[in-house]
Amino acid sequence: MNQLLQEQYKRLGISPEVSAFGKKIEASLKQRFEEIDARAEYNQLKVLKAMQDNRVSAECFNTTSGYGYNDLGRDTLEKVYASCFGGEDALVRPQITCGTHALALALMSNLRPGDELLSPVGKPYDTLEEVIGIRPSKGSLAEYGITYRQVDLLADGEFDYEGIRAAINERTHLVTIQRSKGYAPRKTLSVERIGKLIAFIKDIKPDVICMVDNCYGEFVEEREPIEVGADMIVGSLIKNPGGGLAPIGGYIVGKKECVENAAYRLTSPGLGKEVGASLGILQSFYQGLFLAPTVVSGALKGAIFAANIYEKLGFDVVPDGSESRHDIIQAISFHNPDALIAFCEGIQAAAPVDSYVTPEPWAMPGYDSDVIMAAGAFVQGSSIELSADGPIKPPYAVYFQGGLTWYHAKLGILKSLQKLKERKLVNLDALC
Fold first, then answer.
1. In whole angstroms, what is the distance from residue 164 CA to residue 169 CA?
2. pLDDT (tens digit, 9 = 90+) per residue, 111-126?
3. Strands 147-150 and 330-333
4. pTM greater than the 0.90 cutoff
5. Which contiguous run of DSSP H or E holds residue 119?
6. DSSP secondary-structure letter at 60?
C-alpha cells in the first residue's frame, strides 16, 4: 500500500495492523474479483441493449403529475425492465414504497379467498410474516381467507422434495420462493437451484404461479429467475437495480396477467398501469439501472472480502470465503451481542452520511426482536449502499451488504474490524 493511501486510511481511524491484515486478504482475492468484473461487464451490456431496444430517449426523463396519463418515460422504463429481466411485462413505480410492499402487492393481487400460499424454502423474511398472517396483523392475507403452508429446508440445506409434493394440493395457487437468506442461516438460492425447484413444482401442478423474491439478487449472476421458469420476480429499487440512485420504488416483472393483476391492485380496477405520475424522478431510475451491474460488483467484492476477513478470524460466515455468490449479503455469526454491535458501529463510522452517530438496537416495526441497523446512506434504508443489520438474539449474526463502490465497502469492513480490535473482541497479532 503506497504511503499516501496508508496515511489516508490512518486519518480515517484504521490502524497499521488492520490495514496490513486487510491487504493480505485482498491480495488473495484477485482472481475472484476478476470473475466478478467479467460478470458485471456481461450484465452491463444486457442493460444497455434493453435500453437501446426500447428506444430510451431524453423525452423519457420528462416529469408528469396528476393522473400521469401517457407517461412515455414510465411506460418505456417498464418495457426496459421486462426486456432486461426476461418478462412479458413489468410494473416499476415510485408508488411501490419498498420491497415488502412490492411482495405484498404481488401476493394480494394474485391470490383470492380460498387460495393457499406455499413457501417451499422455509419461513420468509420477518416483514412478510404480518403480510401473510403468520403474526396477526390488520389487512393480512389470513384476514382475507388465504391460508399459508411452508416446507422447511432439510438439515443439509437441500429442498425437501417429498415434503413439497405432499404440501401441494388443489388450493395451492401461488408458491413464493425467497432467493436470499433473510435472517436465516441458510444459503442463498442460486438461479440454477431455483429453476430446478420450479420445474419440480410445475411438474406436479403446472398452473401454479411461482413467484421469486429477487431482493439482493439482481445482476449477481448472468441469469435471472424468469429465465428458469419463474412466473413473477419482485424486488426493491433501493436495493440492487436502483444502483444507489433510485430514491424509492419497487418492481414486479413477469407474465402479463400477473403484472396486470398487481397494477389493478396498486391503483384501481379499471385504471391499472394507465395512471401513476412519475413526479420527475425517472432519470434516477434509468441511470440507476444503467449503473446497477457495476454497483453490484462492488458490493459483491465487499461481501467476499468480509467473508474472508472474518472467516480467517474464526467466525462462522455464510457464504464462506470460497463459495459462489448468489446475492450481495454476507452473514457473520459472532455468538456475542457486543461483537455484533461493534461491527455495526464500525459500518456506521465509515458512512458518508451520519458517520458521527452511534447505532443502537431498537424495536423496529415488522420484526420479532430488537434490531440494530447501521446505514449512513444517501437514501434512507437503501441497502445497496453500505449497510449492516442484525437481530439481537442468538446466534447474534450480522447481515452485511452494499457499498456503492468496492473502495467504500472495503473501508467499511476495515472499520468494523478496527472496532472489534479496539474492544479486544478479535486478536490480529498472530495473523498479520
1. 10
2. 999 999 999 999 998 8
3. unpaired
4. yes
5. strand 116-119
6. G
